[in-house]
Amino acid sequence: MIGQLLRSFLLADTAIAALADEVAVGYIPTDADGDLQVETYIWLSNFSEEDSLTFTNGNGGLTEYRFDVECCSTSISEAKQLARLVKKLLQNYGPSAAFGTVTPTGGGAIPGRVAACYITSKDDTYTAINSFINDDITVVAQDLTIFADDSQDDIIGA
Q1: How many domains does the chain have?
Q2: Which of 39, 65, 115, 147 is most enclosed, with most CB atoms within 10 A?
């Protein structure tokens, strides 16, 4: 569910929403032929989730979520601009701050909360997933770490 909260949080920013045609969690927005449906988008992939455990009482209550964040565009300047907007929004976000909303099946909107966010640029060894889709795509990749209460993952139908 943290992916949906992240998507909601990014789209709530008016500058990001105005520039990005899509914020995709775990999929690349393509049509049936594999061609891109949009020109500028953010691709999110949750590649790690680790519970924070303590020696005294087991679960520490926070989970560390790691995401690949790829800001993609057919325009180099738009990809860079989108990456700057994402980094500005997420860098050092928190503590215990509101973080998007999700609407579970049959229920009202539920706000998410995070303890902290940290985002850094990927190094030169990172291979961007979206660069395989289309040679005309410029990808600016970042590494996002979010610390949040893992009980948010227990919301059914979100």
Answers
A1: 1
A2: 65
